[in-house]
């Protein structure tokens, strides 16, 4: 059975999608079977995995509304060697349309149950909001990976996310845990980065992943080629860090 992880942080532009796509590709390099679920109407993970979000015949939207299923809607990321449940802006409508549906927080969980056995990892790229879509991600997952930039405002808003996770754990999904905080876009030359990083370790202890993802321009360039950074330039520092993070995750799930 697959271990399911949400990559979530309601702050925008903190590296959720870059983390989801490159962790998926990094895990695939380690021979793990991976499904990436794009749960963001922006469709950035879809594009970053090399799939054209404009021409989707079925997507996360139809799967959430129950008019398609994961096995039909998924596509292969050829450069990344993983499967993708793709999305585009249509998914924004699901937020409203789901209000009328039964079990609306568990639509994604139920949809994933059908393909669970085919994967080692399911990685869910969440939108930058604590919305019904994100709630579906949290209800479906065993754990949350929180990417964070080590800057002054990083900790602000973290308590909202942690409280939401606690509520989901208490009321909807007793399996849910914070797996860890991932330091991303890290610049070791900045004293502030070092300070915030040390603060995170102090507060959160082993909930902070050992792997640190550096700021690396190759990771930022890769999406415009529709290729995960890990495949685009495997020897770059960013790619190497995400492969190391993949190895850290493989180790972690053995303990779960
Ligand atoms: P959103 O909240 O809009 O979904 P996000 O949290 O998914 O954003 P990303 O899209 O992954 O964030 O990253 C934001 C920007 O930062 C992108 O332009 C991305 O290419 C860049 N970026 C992410 N990680 C790195 C990194 N380690 N080094 C350099 N650039 C990065
Ligand atoms: Mg994103």
Biggest beta sheet attributes: 8 strands, mixed
- Total helix count? 12
Ligands present: adenosine-5'-triphosphate, magnesium ion
CATH top level class name: Alpha Beta
N-to-C order of helices and strands: EHEHHHEEHHEHEHEHEHHH
The total tally of domains equals: 1
The fourth-level CATH homologous superfamily is: P-loop containing nucleotide triphosphate hydrolases
Instruction: Provide the CATH topology.
Output: Rossmann fold
Brief digest:
The chain is of the alpha/beta class and 256 residues long.
Structure report:
42% of the residues lie in helices and 18% in strands. The model has no long low-confidence stretch (mean pLDDT 95). The chain has 256 residues and is an alpha/beta fold. The relative contact order is 0.20. α9 links the parallel β7 and β8. α1 crosses α12 and α6 runs parallel beside α7. The protein binds adenosine-5'-triphosphate (ATP) and magnesium ion. Adenosine-5'-triphosphate binds next to α1, β7 and α10. Magnesium ion binds next to α1.
Describe how the helices and strands are arranged.
Elements: E1 3-7, H1 16-29, E2 34-38, H2 44-48, H3 60-65, H4 70-73, E3 75-77, E4 82-85, H5 91-97, H6 107-113, E5 121-125, H7 132-140, E6 143-149, H8 158-171, E7 177-186, H9 191-204, E8 208-214, H10 217-221, H11 229-232, H12 237-255
Bound molecules: adenosine-5'-triphosphate and magnesium ion.
Pfam family, one: AAA_31
Domain AAA: 3-178
InterPro entries: AAA_dom (IPR025669), DNA_Partitioning_ATPase (IPR050678), P-loop_NTPase (IPR027417)
């Amino acid at each position: 059975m697959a271990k399911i992880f949400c990559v979530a942080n309601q702050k925008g532009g903190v590296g959720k999608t870059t983390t989801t796509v490159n962790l998926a590709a990094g895990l695939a390099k380690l021979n793990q079977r991976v499904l990436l679920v794009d749960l963001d109407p922006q469709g950035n993970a879809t594009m970053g995995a090399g799939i054209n979000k404009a021409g989707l015949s079925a997507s996360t939207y139809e799967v959430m509304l129950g008019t398609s299923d994961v096995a039909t809607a998924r596509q292969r990321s050829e450069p990344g060697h993983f499967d993708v449940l793709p999305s585009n802006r249509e998914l924004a409508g699901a937020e409203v349309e789901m209000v009328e549906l039964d079990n609306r927080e568990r639509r994604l969980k139920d949809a994933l149950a059908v393909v669970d056995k085919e994967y080692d990892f399911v990685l869910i790229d969440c939108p930058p909001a604590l919305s019904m879509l994100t709630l579906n991600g949290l209800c479906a997952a065993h754990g949350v990976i929180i990417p964070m930039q080590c800057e002054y405002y990083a900790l602000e808003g973290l308590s909202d996310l942690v409280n939401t996770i606690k509520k989901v754990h208490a009321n909807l999904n007793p399996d849910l845990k914070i797996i860890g905080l991932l330091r991303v876009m890290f610049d070791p030359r900045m004293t502030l980065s070092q300070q915030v990083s040390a603060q995170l370790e102090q507060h959160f202890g082993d909930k902070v992943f050992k792997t640190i993802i550096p700021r690396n321009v190759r990771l930022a360039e890769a999406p415009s080629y529709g290729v995960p950074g890990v495949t685009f330039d495997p020897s770059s520092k960013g790619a190497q860090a995400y492969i190391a993070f993949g190895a850290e995750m493989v180790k972690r799930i053995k303990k779960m």
